[in-house]
Amino acid sequence: METNSNSASSKPSASSLRWRILSRAVLHRAKNPDESQLGMKLISRKAAKGFNLIQCQLLNHDHESRDAQFCYTLPTQGCPKLVLTQRLNNNADLTDFEICNRHNIDNTGIVCQWPSEDVLAYYCLSHADMFRSKRVIELGSGYGLAGLTIAATTEALEVVISDGNPQVVDYILHNINTNSGAFGETRVKPMKLHWNEKEVSNLSHTFDVIVASDCTFFKEFHKDLAQVTELLLKKPGPSEAILFSPKRGNSLDKFLEEIKDNGLLFSITEIYDTEIWNRHQQFMNGDESWPGYEKDHCYPLLIRITR
């Protein structure tokens, strides 16, 4: 009997994909380099530097620790440098996986910094006016590069940097404290936020701007992400969510169906920044600094969501 490779039974589940991401991290020291790459083509085409829009330099690494300090130099004159403590790529362990299962979250935020976060931070830096005097929340922030960039450069009223993984939130708090001198009058705080929370204390319908990057990969979280977006967007009054996400087959389309089901409007923009588009074309034309680059999986589209 022939097996249909597109059948539901052959599609990897979200939990198996989380395990493969973790497996790569655990096996990265394997003697056979190919072993650590097993199955990863199905998960991500994450590059060492991605679009390389924000210069990143290793500052400090204790070889007995999985963590390191990195300095991000924002590409605008007069902007402060940001120092983030984060895991070295591919240094997860079984405890990380156990926490993901316990909290029903994915572990991608702690495995590495993803290219769409770099794009989001760069875009926010280039459009600072949209955040000035606004209340902003970043969803699924990982180590918080975009949220910290907004806090340090846009004169936002408040920036909440959130993630559902309690380990990641600890990193966010540490990074906020490290960079607190760069925020001026902007209030900045971390938050552990699960997207399936129906009531978010006094935060319901209070944010002028929501930002997020690469949060639509796992289809099992689409409904919750759409609902929490509607819940957090301010009303009455103008508000919007700014998301960056690759198309990844029908994953993004499925998420946008949930957005419509929640009574929200959206627009999709492919060419939103000349520099990012030029780098995308370089990768498509064979630039070897991003092996395996494919538009569908790697190039983040700009999604703007409004009421």
Describe, in plain words, how this protein is organized in 3D.
The chain has 307 residues and is of the alpha/beta class. The protein contains ten helices and ten strands. It has helices at 14-27, 94-103, 108-111, 115-126, 145-153, 166-178, 222-232, 251-261, 274-284, 295-298, and strands at 55-61, 67-73, 81-87, 135-139, 158-163, 187-192, 209-213, 240-245, 265-269, 301-306. A hairpin with a 7-residue loop joins strand 2 and strand 3. The longest helix is centred in the first third of the chain and has 14 residues, at 14-27. It is globular. Residues 1-10 and 28-47 have low confidence and may be disordered.
Order of strands across the main sheet: 6-5-4-7-8-10-9
Largest sheet geometry: 7 strands, mixed
Order of helices and strands: HEEEHHHEHEHEEHEHEHHE
Rounded to the nearest angstrom, the distance between the terminal CA atoms is 50 Å
Strand fraction: 15-25%
Rg calc:
19 Å
Structural class: alpha/beta
Outline the low-pLDDT stretches.
1-10, 28-47
The helix content, as a percent range, equals 25-40%
